[in-house]
Design goal:
The structure holds two protein chains of two kinds.
Chain A (H helix, E strand, L loop, with lengths): L1 H4 L3 H34 L2 E3 L3 E3 L5 H6 L2 H34 L5 H9 L6 H12 L4 H8 L13 H26 L2 H9 L4 H30 L1 H8 L6 H11 L3 H29 L6
Chain B lengths: L5 E10 L2 E11 L4 E5 L6 H9 L6 E6 L2 E2 L10 E4 L11 H11 L4 H14 L15 H13 L5 E5 L7 H18 L2 E6 L2 H7 L2 E6 L2 E6 L1 H6 L4 H6 L4 E11 L2 E6 L2 E6 L10 E6 L5 E3 L7 E10 L3 E8 L4 E7 L14 E5 L6 E4 L3
Parallel strand pairs in B: 3-8, 3-9, 6-7, 7-8
Antiparallel strand pairs in B: 1-2, 1-4, 4-5, 9-10, 11-12, 11-14, 12-13, 14-20, 15-19, 16-17, 16-19, 17-18
Helix pairs in contact in B: 2-3, 2-4, 3-4
The chains are: A mainly alpha, B alpha+beta.
Bound molecules: adenosine-5'-triphosphate and magnesium ion.
The site of magnesium ion has 3 residues of chain B, from helix 1.
Chain lengths: 292, 361
Amino acid sequence: MAEVALPPPRHRNLLRSALLGLSWGWLLALVLVPNLLVLAASLLNRDPTHFLQLPLTLDSYRRLLDPLYLRVFLDSLALALATTLGCLLLGYPFAWALSRIDGRWRPLLVFLLILPFWTNSLVRTYAIKQLLAANGPLNGALLALGLIDAPLELLYTQGAVILGLVYLLLPFMILPLYAVFEDLRPELLLASRDLGAGRLATFVHVLIPLTLPGILAGTLLVLLPALGMFYVADILGGARVLLVGNIIKNQFLDARDWPFGAAASILLTAAMALLLFAHRLARRRLRDGEAP
Amino acid sequence: MTSPLLSLRAIGKAYAGRPVLLDLSLDVLDGEFLTLLGPSGCGKTTLLRLIAGFEHPDQGSIQLAGADLTAVPPERRPLNTVFQQYALFPHLDVFGNVAYGLRRERRPRAEIDLRVREALDLVQLGEFARRKPQQLSGGQQQRVAIARALVKRPRLLLLDEPLSALDAKLRRQMQLELKRLQRELGIAFVFVTHDQEEALSMSDRVAVLHAGVLQQLGTPREVYERPANLFTARFVGETNLFPARVLETQGERVVVDCAGQRRTLPTPGFAPHAGQAVNLLLRPEDIRVLGPDADHGLPGTVIERNYKGSTLDSLIRLDSGQEVLVSEFFDEDDPAFDYRLGETVKVSWVDGWEWMLPADG
Ligand SMILES: Nc1ncnc2c1ncn2[C@@H]1O[C@H](COP(=O)(O)OP(=O)(O)OP(=O)(O)O)[C@@H](O)[C@H]1O
Ligand SMILES: [Mg+2]
């Protein structure tokens, strides 16, 4: 009798409620409350001594629309989009290949993929800085090969920031893509060819739609950090490249304008919510049975 | 003689040095229902993949309607495939799945609409056009896969064990439906199965495959009654094997010794010579059970009796130790039929009903 082994129903319910309550409490205390505090801060006025003061105002949001800041946001968005595109172009074929190779090697390769996470990303960013420096190994090699006469100015450019972001964020693109590629049944691609679609048509009409949840999940995990990783811009871009993350950091730590920093931060949260929503929609379109 | 629709010549294929298909030649005629029958792993799917163009043969050539297919990619071969696990596109609804092939041809919208409706009506799924494949039963998904292939009006349809995932009753129904479709549309079918009953009941011709080698190609009747070798005999239905030795040949007849009994039989398909070891093959329904006092037959004991609805199957252990399977049509009025479990009987057959094969074949 299986029932004997289980605790009586009332106990089980109690345990379940306790566990559920705990996770809800956790979410409430560490996610919802901080976000509400940020939202509240964004709606207040700044105060030189206490940081925040009443009355409520939309002033900070209005200032976000200032052409000066708007410019920074759009530049940062363009940089983040370039990073995402770079990760997608590198990650898509990589994830596909990873899902196709001999099963024995796969765990090892996935392990190698996440191995860099064991080193702090700040340290890795400094390593890239060394690599790109005027007297760094890359310029050294190019000079030695006689390909260039004078060291290239690689550091403190947009390109350097994008390179750093792509390097740091690539695994976050590959892992969700790898997951969808692993679930992909190869017969579906054969069926498409069999029905008269060439390689390109099969890519567009079958492969992309079936891997869309992975593409969106990867975009979600790359685009938002690419807007916010201020230290990458600091280290590799010098003062020349600003991310939304730099603005938020500056407002909180340097300018001491909490309401404005909070408003910029809410902007990022809203962008994330939008992407999450798009991801859910795409997943639902592929899922069985459930009405949209 | 009409020229074949599909013609396979001396096909060879190996995976990582291990041969999967060996020197296989086969013709498929226009409009015929040809079944590839063989045990798991014998190369049936591989052969279909070669015909569809998903793989390339190491040796040999494939011609369709006189044109060489070697350099033709799958999307440009005028044939379609029904996959074993259906392979319906999960992101498209039933209509979208069936329309997929026509959309890639850039057909006008009105034509696509019309042809998809027709194809769905053909498989009786007209009302399910807006469902997703995942919302259909196995049999319905199977029919979508068939409609999706047929809507392209191929000259040849390849079906890889399309019924193996269905339960027995649905399977029987789909067998009849497929057969009806094939007759009405006049499309040639190459149908893969490892179920011999399915192969015999549906096909115009059966190709028996074993370990990558074509064992026999013939009508269901030929394959069943005149198997080319022991493998085919055993794989296509139950069979009883009686070892015998040729004593002498007498023109149209051949005299053999079978377990001490002298029998004069018609000359088989090969030329026997005196002293040659042969096997006499008898289907269970061709065996006769006689009383213990009969003047001929091999003595034995009834060790099993199974009532199978229309037939009564018995297992008889001969005194030599060999076991013989007998299947008799159930007839309560038949007086010759009342032997019981444990009774001693004699086993015989009408001369000429056996099928003789050389013992080393
Ligand atoms: N891509 C491949 N790589 C290596 N070996 C393969 C490959 N495809 C098939 N084989 C081998 O070739 C042989 C024939 O396979 P095939 O799939 O054609 O068999 P089948 O007759 O369709 O069997 P089943 O009835 O189980 O579907 C098998 O031994 C299989 O292991
Ligand atoms: Mg197979």
